[in-house]
Write a structure and sequence with these properties.
There is one protein chain. This protein is mostly helical and about 280 residues long. The chain contains nine helices and two strands. The chain has a two-stranded antiparallel ribbon with strand order 1-2. The two termini are about 25 Å apart.
Length: about 280
C-alpha cells in the first residue's frame, strides 16, 4: 500500500476545503529542493549496465503476473477469515497477500544478477528530500482543486486504509498492520515495479535515458492504486514513483526505493495519528 496524506484536519475551512498551512510549507520545500536538484544536474538519469537484472523480459513479466495472482488469492483467503469492514479482516488480507508473494521475492533475489550497489544511503536521502515533499505538495494542491470541482470528497487522507488508523484502537493488531503496510508493502511493490517492471520497460523502450521507462512505470504504479486512493493521491503517488525509479537507477538496487517507500508510508500513518493529538 502506498498512500498520501493530504493535509491537517484541524485548520479552518473555506468553501469546504481546509486552509492547510502545512501544505504551504511543504510546497515551498518542494520548490526549493526541486530547483536545487535541477540546478546541480542531478536530474540526469542515464541507463547503466548494473540496472538490468539477469532476468529476461518474458520471465520478468511471468514473475509480475505470479505476484498479482498469488497476492489476489492470498487476499481473497484472508478476506474470508473475518467480518467485512473490520481491522482484523484488513490484517488477514494484507498478511495472506504478502505471505503468498514471498516465493516470488525469494526467486527475484536469487535470479537477479549480482552487481555492486552504489551510494544507497546518499541516494535515498537525496531522493526522499526531493520527491517526497513534491509528492505531498502535488497531492495536497490537486486535492483542493478536485474538491472544488466536485471530483472528490474533502478528506485529510487519500487512501482508504489510512482511515483504519484514525478509527481503530492501537494494539497488537494495529502494530502488525503498520508493519505490513510499511515494510511489507514496500518490499512487495518495489520488487514488482522497480525490480522487475522498470528494467523490462527500459529494455523495450531502449535509449540511454531512463526517464521514459520511469514515467511508464510510474503511470502503471499510480493507476494500480485506483479505488482505495483518491485521484489527488494517485497524482502524488505518480510523483513518488518517479523518485523511487530514480533511486533504483542511481543506486543500482531495490533497497533504496524500499527504504524510501517504507518511510513514506510510515510518515502518512504518523500523520493520521497526529490529527488526534
Amino acid at each position: 500500500m502506498s498512500s498520501t496524506a493530504q493535509g491537517s484536519g484541524g485548520a479552518p475551512e473555506v468553501e469546504g476545503v481546509s486552509i492547510d498551512f502545512s501544505l504551504i510549507a511543504v510546497t515551498i520545500i518542494a520548490l526549493v529542493t526541486g530547483m536545487l536538484f535541477v540546478s546541480q544536474g542531478q536530474c540526469k538519469l542515464e541507463q547503466r549496465g548494473y540496472l538490468e537484472p539477469s532476468i529476461t523480459p518474458t520471465l520478468s513479466l511471468m514473475l509480475i503476473g505470479s505476484m498479482f495472482v498469488l497476492g489476489g488469492i492470498g487476499g481473497i483467503i484472508g478476506q474470508q477469515r473475518a467480518e467485512d469492514g473490520t481491522l482484523l479482516q484488513l490484517l488477514w488480507m494484507y498478511g495472506f497477500a504478502t505471505a503468498a508473494q514471498l516465493p516470488v521475492i525469494v526467486a527475484y533475489a536469487f535470479l537477479r544478477k549480482r552487481s555492486e550497489s552504489r551510494h544507497i544511503l546518499v541516494t535515498s536521502v537525496v531522493t526522499f528530500a526531493v520527491f517526497v515533499p513534491l509528492a505531498h505538495a502535488v497531492a495536497g494542491c490537486s486535492h483542493i482543486i478536485f474538491v472544488n470541482l466536485g471530483v472528490e470528497q474533502a478528506s485529510a487522507v487519500g487512501h482508504s486504509t489510512l482511515t483504519f488508523f484514525s478509527t481503530e484502537p492501537f494494539g497488537l493488531q494495529m502494530m502488525l498492520l503498520i508493519l505490513l503496510v510499511t515494510v511489507g508493502a514496500a518490499v512487495i511493490e518495489e520488487v514488482m515495479y522497480r525490480g522487475l517492471l522498470l528494467p523490462t520497460i527500459a529494455s523495450i523502450i531502449g535509449g540511454r535515458s531512463m526517464w521514459k521507462a520511469s514515467i511508464a512505470t510510474s503511470i502503471i504504479f499510480a493507476l494500480m492504486h485506483i479505488g482505495p486512493a483518491q485521484p489527488s493521491a494517485i497524482l502524488g503517488l505518480f510523483i513518488l514513483s518517479l523518485g523511487l525509479c530514480y533511486a533504483r537507477v542511481k543506486s543500482g538496487s531495490v533497497l533504496s526505493p524500499i527504504i524510501i517507500h517504507a518511510i513514506f508510508n510510515a510518515m502518512n500513518i504518523a500523520f493520521v495519528y497526529s490529527m488526534d493529538l
